Amino acid sequence: MAKLLIYDAYTNRFYTYDRGENEPMPYSYGNTLTVGEFRGSSRANVLWTTVAAMEAWNLTRRRYGRGIPVGYAFKRIWEGGHGTTSQHYAGVAFDVGQGSGSAARKQIHATATATGAWGYVEPLSMTPTWVHFDRRYGTPACPNTTAGYPTIRRGSRSTYVLILQDALNALGYSSGALDGICGSNTISALKAWQRAVSLTADGVCGCASWRKLAASAAGIGRTATVVDK
Question: What is the pTM of this model?
């Protein structure tokens, strides 16, 4: 059984679900994406994504017209596996088509591109045995990139706030519960961490903070201070 946090940008709210591994992901079309498929190799109890990512999945799946095998979708930042600012940590990216033939992967790629629903569909030349697409959102805090995380400040709500909270918790700076809302506890934890690493303790997670925080937390493994409930 997994706890799922689904962010809806239309209402600026999170919705919480408890689902078994073989049950469909909330907001997914029919049974085309189960919790287990979304989880992949993650061993976390708490997973997250967005309504927009599920809607993009639904549109792609309907247009493709048959099953799309999902090899990798979600990881917590301390589990690592996809660099330091991966959209997989935000729960909005999918690597699919592993084990499929080249023709099938080309068709999946063309279908995902044609929907216009994904923010990024990676060129096939960069993904020789799979297809990657993601529904990233927000303006990256670091310039000259489309892949980074947006600036987080007091009052922010998103799965990127969940990454921030998750990273701080894993590093021993408690932000309290994982709720995706940048409130007083998250700000206090962020300021404490910023002071510890000689950054300006302004309680804003911008480019410099994201770079150092993600580099410190990505792939370090489950620590005693990780929150996972």
Answer: 0.97
